[in-house]
Amino acid sequence: xxxxxxxxxxxxFKVRSGYEAVWVLTxxxxxxxxxxxxxxxxxxxxxLLREGFSRMQYSVYAQHFDSQEASDAVCERLLRLVPPAGExxxxxxxxxxxxxxxxxxxxxxxxxxxxxxxxxxx
Length: 122
Description:
Structural class: alpha+beta
Strand content: 25-35%
Order of helices and strands: EEEHEEHEHEE
Largest sheet: 4 strands, antiparallel
Low-confidence stretches: 1-15
Helix content: 25-40%
Distance between the termini: 14 Å
Number of strands: 8
Mean pLDDT: 82
């Protein structure tokens, strides 16, 4: 990771490494048989969306972070909100690993998700 001068004295921006940036994937199987279970499922999904996660597939959501440390606070908040029944998993993968993902929709190839454009000023 390096720092490049943007032209004005004392200002620079950080260039992210594809190995420092991480994606957090959450995968979940939650029961939805009763009204209460459906409500808990909807609440869990809403919390993921509020935290900035996007749906990759049914029950698989992802969010990009500039570093593992940046993802920690969000994961800790979400872990406190996990419904009492069902299974929830969090997995961190590097940006480089996501770029190597093979995605097929039917028989058509699709590019993997890309992070939102972000520039960190220091």
